[in-house]
Design the sequence.
């Protein structure tokens, strides 16, 4: 093959490639503009990829100029107009993608968020919530309030105030419970961030000086946020960071008292929130529970007697 024949062969291949490219471009243009092929060029409204747009100005007295890109007659469609249309379309695609991602996030959030009504406040960081007809004990994530009902610890400074504040914030209200990583602790309590409306109660208690930050990995989503508001509470000397707790002397732990009648050994205990709870000898906390008759606590001879008197059975029985 001499040089002249080789050059002719190369030129032929180039022509074929250009032809295929032109055919492919024409097919894709037809697909994109199939909705406008049936619309007269003089129509007041033009369409691009099925989307209505405002009419473009004509190049003359209502003349239709052929589009070099789409190959369809349009009133005054210029390359600049088409470029703008492509940018708008791409932006709409990005918006759709963004909405889809948001949708998936909402589905994920729904699996870790539940609502219920607070039926009891145990102490400053623990509540009982009725969820779909079942009462669940819920422990606030990331915080700790002074003890008031621990069976082997004395009442700590600002413990009763924390319990009272917690009751004020949530009792009888509908709360939203948001999970972090861990679902339940070793005691079977739900671990949650608790919201009333847009207010996170965990954070509110720390900010008011009713609770301190208590981080227990892996549930650390709001640890930095809690520490920031705790620092503000300390700087302002509010709540348990104030003078009242610097000179606080905890009361002594009461000495366990034996039942006056061995046949009446059921313990009727009153929690810091005022709940009347009885513990039978088979309950887990029975041995640690103490009875102080000066505070209205008492002994019962049977569970039915306790129930009839208005007491409820402990949840860990």
Sequence:
């Amino acid at each position: 093959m001499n040089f002249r024949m080789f050059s002719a062969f190369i030129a032929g291949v180039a022509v074929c490639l250009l032809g295929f490219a032109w055919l492919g471009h024409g097919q894709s243009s037809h697909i994109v503009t199939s909705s406008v092929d049936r619309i007269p060029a003089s129509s007041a409204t033009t369409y691009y990829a099925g989307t209505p747009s405002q009419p473009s100005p004509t190049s003359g007295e209502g003349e239709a100029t052929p589009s070099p890109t789409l190959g369809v007659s349009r009133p005054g469609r210029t390359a600049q107009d088409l470029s703008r249309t492509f940018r708008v379309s791409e932006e709409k695609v990005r918006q759709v993608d963004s909405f889809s991602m948001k949708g998936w996030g909402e589905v994920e959030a729904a699996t870790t968020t539940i609502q219920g009504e607070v039926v009891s406040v145990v102490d400053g960081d623990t509540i009982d919530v009725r969820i779909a007809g079942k009462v669940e004990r819920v422990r606030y994530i990331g915080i700790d309030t002074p003890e008031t009902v621990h069976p082997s610890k004395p009442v700590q400074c600002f413990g009763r105030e924390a319990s009272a504040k917690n009751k004020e914030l949530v009792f009888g209200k509908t709360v939203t419970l948001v999970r972090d990583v861990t679902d339940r602790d070793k005691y079977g309590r739900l671990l949650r961030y608790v919201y009333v409306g847009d207010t996170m109660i965990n954070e509110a208690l720390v900010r008011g000086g009713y609770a301190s930050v208590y981080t227990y990995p892996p549930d650390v989503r709001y640890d930095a946020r809690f520490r920031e508001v705790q620092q503000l509470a300390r700087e302002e000397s509010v709540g348990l960071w104030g003078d009242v707790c610097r000179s606080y002397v905890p009361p002594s732990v009461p000495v366990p008292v034996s039942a006056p009648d061995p046949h009446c050994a059921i313990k009727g205990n009153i929690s810091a929130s005022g709940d009347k709870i009885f513990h039978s000898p088979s309950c887990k906390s029975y041995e640690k529970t103490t009875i102080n008759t000066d505070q209205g606590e008492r002994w019962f001879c049977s569970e039915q007697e306790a129930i009839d008197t208005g007491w409820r059975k402990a949840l860990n029985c």
User: Anything to note?
Assistant: The first helix runs from residue 3 to 32. The chain has a mean pLDDT of 73.
